Amino acid sequence: MKKTLVVVAVLALVALGLGIACCTKCCGSKIAVVDLPAIVGNSAQVQALQAEQNAKGQELGQWLQNAQNEVNAQSDSKKKEALLQQYNAAFAQKREELAQQYAQKLQAVDANITSTITEIAKKMGYKMVLAKGVTIYGGDDITEEVKKAIK
Fold first, then answer.
1. Which single residue of 50, 97, 114, 139 could bond 33 by disulfide (Cβ 3.0 to 4.6 Å)?
2. Mind listing the pLDDT tens digit for each residue in 47-76?
3. Is residue 26 over pLDDT 50?
4. What is the pLDDT of residue 135?
5. Domain total in the chain
6. Directed axis angle between helix 77-123 and helix 143-150, to 10°?
7. Is 64 exposed, middle or buried (0-12, 13-18, 19+ CB in 10 A)?
8. CA angle (40 as vertex; 103, 51 as ends), nearest 5
9. Integer Cα distance of 20 and 27 in angstroms
10. What is the 3-state secondary structure (H, E, C) of the chain?
11. What gap in Å lies between CA 36 and CA 58, rounded to an integer?
12. CATH of the domain at 51
């Protein structure tokens, strides 16, 4: 069953590739490919976002350590349990806020990268841009041009 699914998936990808190839030959469309992991890894915005996320993670870790010290310093078990629950709730909220902020900023960076790729492709006369990782054959690689523009 799994082998059949794999064979069908491969055949579908080949058919899709042939269809795109036929369409581009008939219509004279140019296709570009980009290496998205290379572009993302080279992006100063992504690197800055990762550094910011790491710093916030360290701050949250320090806050958690301070909270743990305060809980451990508490001698009354009922107060200790209440304080622990309070800090657990606060930690969960802080972690969720941090994740939401990161997701929003990452989405903005992704939109910027996508618009840059689109802009460069249009300037160079390409009608379609595919990810290099899903392209088996063909397409002009515009990764370096995009890297230069995104830096």
1. 139
2. 999 999 999 989 999 999 998 998 888 888
3. no
4. 86
5. 1
6. 120
7. middle
8. 60
9. 10
10. CHHHHHHHHHHHHHHHHHHHHHHHHHHCCCEEEECHHHHHHHCHHHHHHHHHHHHHHHHHHHHHHHHHHHHHHCCCHHHHHHHHHHHHHHHHHHHHHHHHHHHHHHHHHHHHHHHHHHHHHHHCCCCEEEEHHHCCCCCEECHHHHHHHHC
11. 29
12. 3.30.910.20
Tokens of 102: 């990161």
| Residues comprising the chain, all counted | 151
Residue with the two structure tokens 């969960």: 92
Q: pTM for the whole thing?
A: 0.66
Tokens of 100: 């939401």
Backbone angles phi, psi at 70, to 5 degrees: -65, -40
Within 8 A by CB and 6+ apart from 17, the residues are: 136, 137
CA distance 112 to 26: 32
Where residue 28 falls (left for φ over 0; alpha for ψ -120 to 50; beta otherwise) is: left
State both tokens at 49: 């976002």
In tens, the pLDDT along 89-107 reads: 999 999 999 999 999 999 9
